[in-house]
Design brief:
The chain is mainly α. The chain contains six helices and no strands. Helix 2 (25-32) crosses helix 4 (82-98) and helix 5 (102-108) crosses helix 6. It is globular and about 45 Å long.
């Protein structure tokens, strides 16, 4: 029962990605092609998401505690280190070349497209390589609380 909330949130996220067409790499690549046949639909999806998130996030963090947890988990670090910058650059390069970020890629697995499968296998291999080279593995336990203000493309 504790996983019902995250499951429903993920289902709504997946539905939004599917309805908006963000599971199609040509939409993402079209958005990034500002010098060619630019497709602004991703910008509308982002603006819509921000319009919903911004006012609600401020209201939610004013509460004493989240509805389904003991406490909020809000990031405290504000510095930019080389690992963060390199990770963001690699994410952007992969997003631009593949036309997917992790959320839409996992949803697009339902298509069984060879390109999608290759992207997801590469993504998982990259995550595994990171875990192997990192001395402190990331906490990926199901009970980990999500941070307020974090996003997954």
């Amino acid at each position: 029962m504790a996983l019902l909330g995250p499951f429903l949130a993920g289902a709504v996220f997946a539905l939004g990605l599917g309805v908006s067409g963000m599971t199609h790499p040509e939409k993402i690549i079209g958005f990034l092609d500002v010098a060619g046949a630019w497709d602004p639909s991703l910008a509308f999806v982002m603006v819509g998401a921000i319009a919903v998130y911004a006012p609600l996030s401020r209201r939610i963090v004013r509460r004493a505690a989240p509805l389904l947890g003991a406490a909020f988990s809000v990031p405290t670090r504000r510095d930019l280190d080389p690992k963060l910058i390199l990770g963001a650059a690699l994410f952007g390069i992969g997003w631009g070349l593949g036309g997917f970020c992790p959320g839409p890629a996992i949803l697009a697995l339902l298509s069984w497209s060879p390109g999608v499968l290759a992207f997801v296998v590469s993504m998982v291999a990259g995550m595994a390589a990171f875990e192997l080279q990192t001395s402190a593995p990331m906490d990926i336990a199901p009970s980990r609380r999500l941070s307020v203000g974090g996003t997954d493309g």
